[in-house]
Inverse folding.
């Protein structure tokens, strides 16, 4: 694979050469944007931090009931630029009197305001998994796939979308359609 292709596929490094060749074939044919739009024709309808918080809480209640509560979930417009991350999970601890209080926050890149519901679920599941598993290890990814069985495929497709954004600069979805009921309320395990 040439160096130009390597640069344009930086989000897909670590995937097999066969997979990269398939992505290049799509790029040179119909294009990644057309491929993604065919698979995911619409974006979700979550526009506010409150709606995102409720969405994350619904997933958390379905899969992580016994974990510490979330204090904040928000879209963050600076995330991808500053932290080179699509989401963050932080715990802030403060001493209040003779007790140690901790607050958990999840921030999701604003990029996910304009994506399909499946992409938003993938990143939300990823950040929620950090409540129980700090490191990106086998247990972490098992938890991600427990909460979203298609997690690995969705992560790959998000990486394809990032590749599309980098090569074309064109955003594909405008979120004006409400999130479908089945995507809003995850089914219990």
């Amino acid at each position: 694979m040439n160096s130009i292709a390597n640069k344009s596929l930086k989000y897909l490094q670590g995937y097999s050469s066969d997979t990269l060749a398939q992505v290049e074939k799509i790029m040179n044919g119909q294009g990644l944007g057309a491929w993604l739009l065919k698979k995911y024709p619409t974006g979700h309808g979550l526009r506010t931090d409150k709606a995102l918080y409720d969405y994350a809480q619904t997933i958390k209640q379905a899969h992580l009931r016994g974990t510490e509560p979330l204090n904040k979930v928000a879209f963050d417009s600076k995330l991808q630029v500053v932290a080179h991350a699509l989401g963050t999970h932080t715990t802030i601890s403060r001493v209040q009197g003779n007790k140690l209080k901790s607050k958990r926050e999840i921030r999701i890149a604003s990029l996910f305001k304009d994506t399909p519901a499946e992409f938003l679920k993938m990143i939300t599941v990823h950040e929620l998994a950090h409540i129980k598993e700090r490191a990106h290890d086998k247990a972490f990814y098992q938890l991600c796939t427990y909460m979203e069985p298609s997690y690995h495929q969705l992560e790959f497709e998000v990486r394809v979308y990032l590749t599309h954004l980098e090569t074309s600069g064109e955003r594909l979805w405008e979120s004006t359609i409400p999130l479908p009921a089945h995507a809003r309320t995850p089914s219990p395990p």
Remarks:
- The longest strand covers residues 99-109.
- DSSP finds nine helices and three strands in the chain.
- The beta strands are 72-76, 87-96, 99-109.
- The chain has a mean pLDDT of 87.
